[in-house]
Structure formats: C-alpha cells, structure tokens
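Input record (one chain):
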Amino acid sequence: MGLFNSIKNMFGDEGNTTISSKDGEAIKVWLMQRLASHLKKDINDLDSATPFEEYGLDSMFAVRVTGELEKVVELRLSPALFFENSCIDDVVNEIVGSVTAVQ
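The corresponding structure, as predicted from the sequence alone:
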C-alpha cells in the first residue's frame, strides 16, 4: 500500500475533515484525493508537481475544490488560488506560507 493510500485511509472521504493549515503534507494528500477522484485515476498515478493544465482541469473544479478546501483548513482562500498557482505543490506552499507569514 502506497503512502497516499495510507494517509487516505486516515482521512477518509468524509466532508467534516479538518486539517491544520500548517500541515502541508496533509493538505497535499487531501488535494491529491480530490484530483484523483475528479480524474477517475488512482492517486498513486498522479504527481503533485504536474501543472493543472496537463490534467485538463476546468474552472468549475477549481472553484468547487477551493470552497471545500476553505472548510477543511478553516481559512479564507483566494477564489483564484488554482489560477495563481500552477500545481498542487504550489497551492500547498501558498497556503502554508500565508499562515506562516501571519504568525
């Protein structure tokens, strides 16, 4: 069983999951789960450094996931988060970096 599957089992797919906005690895896994589900692919076949455009993501996905992610990390996020960052790694760095900068 891969790392992502192990973490996926910890978080499950429940809508009431809360992740610390400082926990970059957990945020990345959560985003990878959403991307894998959307693309109907295995999470282990995805790469968090691959640009969103290579996955063919649309604005509907970006807006929906940004709204879900706001609830998960309990943080107000820019509606343009996925447009201003090219991949999951960049989104995670943006979130963790914004929290670190405030403290």
